[in-house]
What does this fold into?
Amino acid sequence: MSQDKAMQTDAHTDLIIVGAGILGLATAFRAHQQGLSVRVIDRAERPVGSSIMNFGHACFTGQADAVQDVAMNARSGWTEAAQKTGLWAATSGTYIPAVTETEMQLLEEFANHRGSDQVKLMSHSEIANAIGNPDLKCLGGAHLPLDMRVNPREAAPRLAAWLESQGVIFNWRHEVKTVAGGRVDTNRKRYQAERIICCPNFWLTNLFPELADEHEVRVCTLQMALIERPTRIPKDIALFTGTSLARYDGFAGLPSAAALKQELRDSSPELVNCVANVMSTGIEEGLFIGDSHAYDLSPDPFLQEKTSNLLLDTACKYFGIKEPKVIQRWQGRYSDSTKTNLILEQPDSQTTVAVVASGIGMTLSFGIADLALQGTKPTELADF
It folds into this structure.
């Protein structure tokens, strides 16, 4: 439906979704499956926010035990969305080389904890060949076979286009001013629906400032790059490193987790200081390399060349890339909270607010979408 036609109608819908990021689009997808009439409202003219700035890495396995049901539901959603829309989704899993004894010990603990369906331990030669660098110096590693890859620059736009082709109404370039009681006021028009689900990312600070203050919402900024991908490296690669093991909640409760964090502080203080998660994923056009983390209510837009080079040099050692050719650099952004990974609130009986307040929005999007449509946060996720 064209923008002009959408602007000429006040068609009442069952559901309005505020925000056309991946969480809003996943919610629209699930609602459409349920037979609801849906309108999506967004300030931009296409998906250009956090949903296209990331690795396109759906790391279901690395999430906390408590959220595994949500993660597997999200995996089913990504699989179905790929089948229906034609977006690229690879079930290639995640590779984690262990370059220290502590990392290997942690991976062995994780394999014992989760089982062989989720974690497969690998020898040095197996993981080195899998990531395209037979000369990699490592002790061994692991493969997380249930994890998926999508192209973040394709996934959200393709999903939005497919939803529109199925009759979901999109109102682009509408900045939402207020949401309450089944009504959405934008800078252009007023819309009404039986129910509204708001997925505003860090714009929660504008739309529902009290909720943002309650959950101490801030903006996390990331330094990222796209480099040329040698043909020996698979385009669907997803690589984690020791910094990833120290960051993801799925590994946090294991016996060797504290020892790994101390090891990183001792051996790689520069990575710890920039809150690095050195990881990489591939697409046809190259390799995504990242990332660092910084937190602020109003972040500066500037990239630190020292940090960019540190991330690039560290990641490239795993791949054996001696002279990386940088195609693009950028600053990613997503919502972060010091108190929770998921904000799921109901300001009134017709309004639900859903914000993934950490860097796992793309991973869990379809699973969180179902929670948003239910309107409540399950008891078992109270501390998530």
Remarks:
- Residues 1-9 have pLDDT under 50 and may be disordered.
- The two ends are 38 Å apart (CA to CA).
- Residues 53 and 332 are 5 Å apart (CA to CA).
